[in-house]
Amino acid sequence: MTEKTVQHAIDYIQETHNQILEDYKTLLRFPSIGGDPAYNEDVRACALWIVEQLAEMGFDNARLVETAKHPVVYADWLHAGDDKPTVLVYDHYDVQPVDPLHLWDSEPFDAEIRDGKLYARGANDNKAGVWGNLKVFEAMLKANGELPVNIKIMFEGEEESGSPSILDFIETHQEMLAADVMLNSDANFNPDTPDMSYAGRGIVSAEVKVTGPKVDLHSGMFGGIVENPLHVAGKIIGSFHDAQGRIQLPGYYDRVVAVDAAEKARIAHGFNRDEMMEKAGVKSFWGDSIAPASERATVYPTLDVNGMWGGYQGAGSKTVLPAEAGFKATLRLVPDQDPTEVSQILKQYVEGFSSDTVKVECTIGQEQWYFQLVTEGPYLDAVQEALEETIGKRAELVRTGGSIPILGLFNRLIGLPITAFGYGSDEGIHSPNEALKIDDFFTALEAGIRLYHNFGELDQ
Questions:
Q1: Residue 201 near residue 301, CB atoms below 8 Å
Q2: Which CATH code is given to the segment(s) 202-256+301-368?
Q3: Quick one: DSSP state of residue 421?
Q4: Per-domain residue ranges for the chain?
Q5: CATH class of domain segment(s) 3-200+371-456
Q6: What is the pTM of this model?
Q7: Which residues sit opposite 304 in a β-bridge?
């Protein structure tokens, strides 16, 4: 790497600053909500637009690769030579739903700039990584006519719904995905306090339906003699935890691997309790008698109800005993919990509440393993050096409580080393008023340019 080639690419980023933002608004205006079938056409249109961008900047084989659900965006640029590493760049172009809409200060897909921030669903999570990589590659190609490494692009459209089609995709495209390292760009960039998630939890999702009478009933006539599905749903939910917060599913903790003292210390060092409380808007955490909050948030499994329904929800009152009720739940898994085994534990437990008066059905959705990234070695060093060269700091290695389904699959099916570099902060992700700090994004672009050049200097 020469500083001259790096600076040429950085100069291109600075010169095209306004155009980068305007084009990013176009990407953000696609309502690519992958988990809602009503947006299937929008998800596909978004993927096609990204393919067009890759083809225009000079990538080869830019195309959609079909899956059982949403397509994967693939492209490659393999002209750096056999002596240069091949980097598989991963991110996702699908986004979370926008509910509750009334809490947004601007329309979620209008991509509005206010006070140095770009507000839109997906502005951080994680179209920032998609667009950040595309602009870094464009800058290096425009400024220098080549990339310092071989690149394969894999952007999926199902991450926010658990990547249900990706297992089959990986199994049938292993040759296409072959690389020396995988770079996960579904990650954060915070220049003030940089961190990097080196491990995360797996996930199981489920939907529970409780069915009672054949229709909604008059609660005055049938209350007390017909069991209320809402009450049963509440009973199930109330049974999930004891008073201290420990999950009551039989055998749920049997495979959990205890972390050693060194790992506990690393987790504690990377966890800011006060900052997390401020983000949550709470005065205290729950479950401290079980383990420190830092461990409960990262290396302990969870069970959370994400939504409930049943009965009358409108204004005023309606004295009904509902015919059905239900809820959605997710479980976050840690080493060495098997998601298929856990899902069956949940299903058997929940459906055990069925009786002569109500029927309880538990439908399993996602089943994904925990993941692990490298914690040492040349690829991680290349990322850390790029950060240090750009912002004067290295990233703190931290565990995340979240899940990135595809990384666990790659750990088990492909086995190549994985490291991470992101382009957006975590401001408002999965919430109303998701926003990207514009200055920080452009700083991340500079670091991204240095990162790929650092990769290019590694011996193969």
A1: yes
A2: 3.30.70.360
A3: -
A4: 3-200+371-456, 202-256+301-368
A5: alpha beta
A6: 0.84
A7: 330
- Distance, first Cα to last Cα, the chain: 16
Mean pLDDT of the chain, nearest integer: 95
Residue the block writes with tokens 């995360």: 200
Identity (one letter) of the amino acid at 145?
G
CB contact at 8 A, 64 and 47:
yes
CA distance 323 to 93: 39
Which of 404 and 191 is assigned the larger pLDDT?
191
Token couple for 286: 């729950």
Sheet holding 371-372, edge to edge: 371-372, 195-200, 396-399
Query: pLDDT digits over 55-73, tens only?
Result: 999 999 999 999 999 999 9
Instruction: Compute the residue count for the chain.
Output: 460
Alpha-carbon torsion 5, 154, 185, 458, what sign?
A: negative
In contact, 150 and 87? CB cutoff 8 Å = yes
Task: Give yes or no for a cis peptide into 126 (omega within 30° of 0).
Answer: yes
**SS3 letters across 109-134:** CCCEEECCEEECCCCCCCHHHHHHHH
Q: Which two tokens stand for residue 373?
A: 């990234």
Instruction: Examine the pLDDT at 1 and tell me if it is beyond 60.
Output: no
Q: For residues 381 and 455, what is the distance between their CA atoms, to the nearest angstrom?
A: 9
In whole angstroms, what is the distance from residue 227 CA to residue 90 CA?
49
